[in-house]
Amino acid sequence: MEEDNQTIQSSLKNRTKKKRIIIIILSILSIFLVIGTVYGISFYDKLKKTGEKILIDVEAPKVDLGLPEEKLEPITVLLLGVDVRKPADQKRDDTVGDVGRTDTMILVTINPQTKTTKMVSVPRDIRVQLQGRKDFQKINSAYTFSEVKVKGSGPQGTIAQLNEMFGTTINYVVQINFEGFAEFVDAVGGVTVNNEKQFTYYYEFAKGEISLNGDQALIYVRMRKMDVLDDVGRTARQRQVIEAIIDKTSGLSLATNYSEIFDAVGNNLKTNLTISQIFDLQKKYRPSTESIEEVVVNTTEASIDEPNDPYNFPILYQRLAYEERMRIANLLREHIGLEPFNTSNFPKNADELDQDKEKKQK
Question: pTM of the predicted model, to two decimals?
Answer without folding.
Answer: 0.78
